[in-house]
Specification:
It comes from Vreelandella aquamarina. This is LysE family translocator. By secondary structure, this protein is mainly α. It has one domain. The chain contains 9 helices and no strands. α2 runs antiparallel to α5 and α2 crosses α7. It is globular, with a radius of gyration of 17 Å.
Length: 207
C-alpha cells in the first residue's frame, strides 16, 4: 500500500475514533471512576471490538464488490449520506455536545467487558466502517492490504483512547475538553462532511 494512501486511511480512522460518542464516554467513565489502568483497559478491549468489525467489513465488502457491484454502490451512497448526517449533527450540536462523564467506581474487569460490548453493540460503528472502508476495498485487494486496513483501524482506535485515558488522569484536561467541546464538534462535523464527499467520489486504488 502506498504511504500516501495509508496516511489517508489513518486520517479517516483517527477522525472516526475522535468523534464524540458512547466509546469516548466509556473511556471517560472508567478513567474517572477507576484511574488510568481501567481507562486504558477499556481502550484496549474497545480496539479489539473495532478490529473484529473491521475484519468482517473488509471481508464482506470484498465479496460484495466481486459479486454485486450495484448493491455495493448503494451501500456506499447510504454510507456517505450517513456520514454527512453525522457531520451536520455535529455542526449543530454546539455547546450541547459538551463532554461529560460520571465518576462511578469501576474495575479493570468491568472496563474490559464493557469495552468490547460497547464496540460490538454499537450499530453505528458497523455503518461507519461500511462508509469508511468502501473507498479502500477493491476486488483484487491482497491479504496484506486487508491486514493493514484492519490493524490501522485497531491501533489508531486503541492508541487514541489510551491517550485519552492517560490525559484524563491529569485533572486539568477534562475541564478544557468541556470548555472547547463545541469547537471539537464543529471541526468533527466539517471533516465528516468532507469524508462523505470523498466516499461519493469513488473508491481509491491500492496500485
Amino acid at each position: 500500500m502506498p504511504f500516501s494512501l495509508w496516511l489517508s486511511l489513518a486520517a479517516i480512522c483517527a477522525m472516526g475514533a475522535m468523534s464524540p460518542g458512547p466509546s469516548l464516554a466509556l473511556v471517560l467513565r472508567h478513567t474517572l471512576g477507576g484511574g488510568r489502568l481501567p481507562g486504558m483497559t477499556a481502550a484496549l478491549f474497545h480496539a479489539l471490538g473495532v478490529g473484529f468489525y473491521a475484519l468482517l467489513t473488509v471481508w464482506g465488502l470484498g465479496a460484495l464488490v466481486t459479486r454485486s457491484p450495484e448493491v455495493f454502490q448503494a451501500i456506499t451512497w447510504c454510507g456517505a449520506a450517513y456520514l454527512a448526517w453525522l457531520g451536520i449533527k455535529a455542526l449543530r450540536a454546539g455547546r450541547e455536545g459538551a463532554i461529560r462523564a460520571n465518576a462511578v467506581a469501576t474495575t479493570r474487569r468491568q472496563a474490559a467487558r464493557e469495552g468490547v460490548l460497547v464496540a460490538l453493540g454499537n450499530p453505528k460503528l458497523i455503518i461507519f466502517f461500511v462508509a469508511l472502508l468502501s473507498q479502500f476495498v477493491t476486488p483484487d485487494m491482497s491479504a496484506v492490504a486487508k491486514a493493514i486496513v484492519v490493524l490501522t483501524a485497531m491501533l489508531i482506535d486503541g492508541g487514541w483512547y489510551m491517550l485519552v485515558a492517560v490525559g484524563l488522569s491529569h485533572s486539568r484536561v477534562l475541564p478544557w475538553l468541556q470548555r472547547h467541546a463545541h469547537w471539537i464538534n464543529r471541526l468533527t462535523g466539517v471533516l465528516l462532511i468532507a469524508l462523505a464527499l470523498r466516499v461519493v467520489a469513488g473508491p481509491v486504488s491500492f496500485s
